[in-house]
């Protein structure tokens, strides 16, 4: 049974891109007409007294319109290309500082612990963490194109003023944006707005130029005045562009913020956490004062990032009072009551009267996370004669079990082991330890001798000696969560070091002349998240299964072999799994195909280009292969994690 919370909202986020393009084109048309009107008034005497609609079709009108569209398009394309690197570029744009994975600051460590718990519970790599040191307001945002390459940015005010529960509520809200696909449209909206706002920026430049430009004659004065008038007109039109930009932000953002609040309650099961954070924003504010990009980022932030007029129309977030009331009716009154003894009543804003009929955020959460019924079941759930436990239903969710698992996992890690994962050298040695941990000591030394010497990337026996015992004592289930904890440190490697690490890992994996499923999963995971194109968006190419059927057959052939003990069992399992995607005559019953590791990589790359609504069936079919016997072994789960990761589908621990 497909899970609507993740896959349907991923598809909805992609459809929102179409809405965004429509609104953008509408704004471009209106701005172009406004600029053409200015051009018409300036050149009217030179083109006789043509009506405006005739002037638009004249050479003057067409050139003016072409220049305006070209400027807007150029501005958007330049910013689009500038943001191609995803979340890290956005963080640098606002002047945020990367939090070192092994930071000693208590507030930063508190944030890292919360984010690690949420990442392990939801099955995504730990995001890169940044802090805006100069911002005293309470705010946060996430940016990136895929869940596996997200970055999270928080203000210093959020770290200093929020309790752990409140900060956890904010992190849960931001993780919802990661899992729902909101980040992609948020980053693209920045690029589109840059083009819309360019006309106003040009107008401001012309106005300033007219004041600073020296003049020597009356003719020069007239030219200077004309330049200033045109600049002033463009500046006014620029404010119209700002209006439309704000309107676009509001159109795509408000409902998503309520859904993210709902998800935070779902993730943390603590409505007072996110409610308290929102209440403190109402008291102390969340505006970004030190960056010139506050208006660009407004739709991405946890709360409003900039002051604005007509906030009821143009605000990208619902009012604080409304958000708190929808979390839980009466919560606002309780929060105000707790602060009444320490704050004057006049300061206890926001203040509204509780609405008994207000929609509970839990109701929204149930609508978001309630599984769809049989009508929207995936093909494998409908067609397979052996019922499969649907793992796709768990993709993109955080359950109480996964939260407890994440907490227990972090608690049982020795302090030295965990600290090493936050350093570049320790994270690199973890990758090597995961590959050689099962070997006898002499074979470990022999394989490590294959690696070239390097201060960071070369084998370091003293660090391996601290990692290997913990990996052995905690068992196979610790491998992927530990690797996710190490990802922020691995991302600190420069591009050349990343390439060398991936080459070293592949050299160790191939040392015994064969590749195990875990070795495949590890090398694929590192390549997926550390190679140059890691942070870039993956466009949809397939909107039906038929064009992607060769890739599906390769993948399910491997999964059927992994989940069976005999060739006959593998063929039967394969036919059950593939039956949701194709039909055949009895005498032409398909069997498993031979699959090389290269073919598997190519198949996963192709399947990542499926429409989000088509991916649940692939996840379900793979799940049927590994769970048909009623249990999922660690190696089978790691294979499922590999597939889910390559398809950009965050899978929590089972």
UniProtKB/TrEMBL annotation:
Example GO BP: proteolysis
In this protein, which residues make up the domain named Peptidase M48?
108-328
Q: What keywords does the record list, in alphabetical order?
A: Cell membrane, Hydrolase, Membrane, Metal-binding, Metalloprotease, Protease, Transmembrane, Transmembrane helix, Zinc
Q: CDD domains attached here?
A: M48B_Htpx_like (cd07340)
Protein's name in the database: Peptidase M48
Q: Name one Pfam family in it.
A: Peptidase_M48
- The regions listed as transmembrane in this protein's record are 20-42, 62-81, 189-207, 227-248
Q: Which domain of life is it from?
A: Bacteria
Q: What organism is recorded for this protein?
A: Marinobacter lutaoensis
Task: Please name the GO terms that the record assigns under molecular function.
Answer: metal ion binding; metalloendopeptidase activity
Cofactor(s) annotated in UniProt: Zn(2+)
